[in-house]
What we know:
By secondary structure, this protein is α+β, with helices and mostly antiparallel strands. The protein has helices spanning 3-67, 94-112, 127-130, 133-148, 150-162, 175-185, 189-198, 202-214, 236-247, and strands at 74-76, 83-89, 116-122, 222-225, 228-229. It folds into two domains: 1-68; 74-247, Glutaredoxin. The chain is elongated.
Amino acid sequence: MSSNSKASARAQKAAEMRAAQKKAEARRRILTIGGVALAMVLIVGGAIAVSLWQQDKDQAKLEEAVSAASDYGVAIGPEDAPHDVVIYEDFLCPFCGQLENATRDDLARLAADGKVRVEYRPFDLLSQSFGDYPIRATNAFALVLEKSGPEVAKKFHDLLFENQPSEQDPDAATDDDLVQLAVEAGATESEVRAGIESLSHKSWVDEATAEASDAGVEGTPTILLDGKVFQDGRTVEELAGNLVSELE
Length: 248
């Protein structure tokens, strides 16, 4: 074989080897991309499955919580009403204040008509971020509930939201302010002042907060309608309007 023929054969062989190498590399890239894509599908699918499982778990915890009687709240409406609403709230939470303002009259009317039983469960969510007002207000509520009964406690609850301080200046509401609001609601000053000033019902606050945490409550307001979390609304106003519509 001439030198030219040998060189041509070597060049052809090298070209064939390069082509084969390119095909092998292309296959490896396809397999790698496919493997990554499959892994991403499995990861995302697994994350969704875990999320749905966690939602179901949290929902079950909330349903269990509202199915049991609670010592940490005040209720209006008959026990045999066709609907039950539970609202977990923090007295400093501005969204709780907005919800209270938007629903109070309607929920009171519907409760009086026997259409719903509404239970308000205050607890301390925000003190770690905004100071001790949530603790002081909830302590005062618990004290009024014990000393003056649920009717006065509900009026006090309403007044606390009507006079809610801002998160930027929660200390604007002093203990003396809390005493005055309690008296306005119908409590006797001599029965509540010392307890408000000394946080006599701090253990009640801690237990109410623990109960909310055990139920899976992570934010306020958390609304449960007939044992299910109610989130039908993009704004507090929509949420309030849709809740009332469900109960009418």
